[in-house]
Amino acid sequence: MKNVIDSFVSLGHWPSAGSFGFNTDILATNLINLSVVLGVLIFFGKGVLNDLLDNRKQRILSTIRNSEELRKGAIEQLERARARLRKVEIEADEYRMNGYSEIEREKVNLINATSDSLERLENYKNETLHFEQQRAINQVRQRVFQQALQGALRAMNSCLNSELHFRTIRANIDILGAMQEITD
């Protein structure tokens, strides 16, 4: 440390005319060299450094402005998207309500159509039943009539003998003969 202080003190005591030589004190010469280099860098590099820092500052400010503009654009897009979403939600609610109304209308129409169809089917069923009843009644009547006729024929055949048969035929012939004389 004493060498460093001595080197600064010895700077003021240089002989005005003298010999030129090398200073072999490494610590003293390094400090001097460093201070000279730093001084030159500060003096000449000050403008370059200021320019670099100004350029960097401008780029940062430009980036910040661009980011702010992008942020504002994104906020505007978000607001537009929210407005569209609200509009779509309102339309969806309208469609939903219209859909429910349409479904209710279709349901009522379907119920009415089904009721009409059931009424027609009930009428058709009643007509079919009535027709089948009439047909069954007619069949029973025919069967009863046939059985009565067969019973009457059996009864007549059993009651009529040949003499009674001949007398009935002669009486009918006499009636026909009398009718023919009247018509002539």
Describe this structure in a few short sentences.
This protein is mainly α and 184 residues long. It has three helices and no strands. Pfam families: ATP-synt_B (PF00430).
Fold and architecture overview:
With 184 residues, the protein is an all-alpha fold. It has a domain of 102 residues. 90% of the residues lie in helices and 0% in strands. The protein is rod-shaped. About 6% of the residues have low confidence.
- β-sheet strand percentage: under 5%
Write down how many β-strands occur, each being a DSSP E stretch of 2 or more residues. 0
Question: Segments where pLDDT lies below 50 for 5+ residues?
Answer: 7-17
Structural class designation: mainly alpha
As a percent range, the share of helical residues equals over 70%
**Through-space gap between termini:** 188 Å
Biggest beta sheet summary: none
Order of helices and strands: HHH
Tell me the radius of gyration: 69 Å
> Roughly what is the average pLDDT, rounded to an integer?
82
Helix count from the secondary structure assignment: 3
Describe the global form: rod-shaped
